[in-house]
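Backbone shape codes:
***
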Amino acid sequence: MSIIPSLLEFNQKFVEEKRYEAYLTDKYTEKKVAILTCMDTRLIELLPKALGLKNGDAKFIKNAGAILTQPFGSAMRSILVAVYELGAREVIVIGHHGCGMTEIDPDRMVRKFIENGIDPLAIKTLENAGIRMDKFLRGFDRAEEGVMHSVRMIRRHPLFPQAVPVHGCVMDPETGKLDVIVEDYREEA
């Protein structure tokens, strides 16, 4: 059974009772920051609360592991839009301990694709076109490694403004404790 009917039922009451009024803001980031973070369910409410951020304070870009896999993919595009169009003056990449991306095995994922009906020929075609599954589905050994990968990709992006600092942090998904890995990567050797 689909979750859609229960979501729509709740949504109708939410709108009728005007509960949205508590979240009214505009599209520009109040704190002038864009945050690339993981899609992990433990971070949905914890991350903004642990940082003292409320609705409208930051632009949140989420994906698996806070990893940029492609310099011209949708997550990087979102960062560029946040900086150039929506007022972000800093970018923070926030990974977390215990991330599911530390357990990702690209070969196992490909097997799961096939087990779920994806034609092996489609995978072979993608690989022949230059989409390497081992790179596309790549995880990392430690959260810090994943954060630094994304920080470097942002800083080195040919369209990213050099005047905008990029920071890297790792969060404990149980306590919300934030550790700074790098503050403004440009200062690193």
In short: Strands lie at 33-38, 58-63, 90-96, 166-171, 178-182. The radius of gyration is 19 Å. The first helix runs from residue 4 to 16. The mean pLDDT is 94.
